[in-house]
């Protein structure tokens, strides 16, 4: 389960940080409070649609890790633009357009919650894994809120460099998690297939392994 917990910790940070400071950034660009409240609506609406679409695609393709990876592939070019573009946080409407694209991202939280539940293997483990995953997500939110610092404003070049690094790390972690669970399933399948019918039945009758520890359990990925 630890790859899912690690993803919950880091994969939302590249988007959570700009999202946390969105209204403040728009106010600093010269938009009024009323205009700011209206300007945040499009990204929220599109993000909801993209969340539903991404979750549906993951179930349709029966491919969850690589589908969830789209979230950080979406975020990375936008964060790079915030870092290297000379007009970032200077040109109001262009910066707003960039932030809107970034925050219209396909949110993979539902996919990871589903994976956490499926890969628990038992009701008891599911309760613990859900709590651990949510703790990691909340901790990631705390980390995200500390990346943009006062001594780095208004361009936040150092902060955006950190976000780029975290987005790249998250992409690699999604790929690692995919291969980790595939290799786990293959290893268990080899051991399980090496048993004859009597050995399999004896294992099922006598094993003390529970939930996702059992040889006949296969991880979703």
From TrEMBL:
Source organism's superkingdom? Eukaryota
Q: Name where it's found.
A: Membrane
Could you tell me the membrane topology recorded for this protein?
Multi-pass membrane protein
**SUPFAM superfamilies documented for this protein:** MFS general substrate transporter (SSF103473)
Keyword Transport belongs to the record: yes
The taxonomic lineage of its organism, from the top, reads:
Eukaryota, Fungi, Dikarya, Ascomycota, Pezizomycotina
Q: What is this protein called?
A: Transporter
Residues annotated as transmembrane: 6-26, 38-57, 93-115, 127-148, 160-181
Keyword annotations from UniProtKB, A to Z? Membrane, Transmembrane, Transmembrane helix, Transport
Q: Which InterPro entries match?
A: MFS_trans_sf
A molecular-function term among this protein's GO annotations: transmembrane transporter activity
Gene Ontology cellular component?
A: membrane
The record lists the organism as: Cryoendolithus antarcticus
Q: Does the keyword Transmembrane apply?
A: yes
Gene3D superfamilies linked to this entry: MFS general substrate transporter like domains (1.20.1250.20)
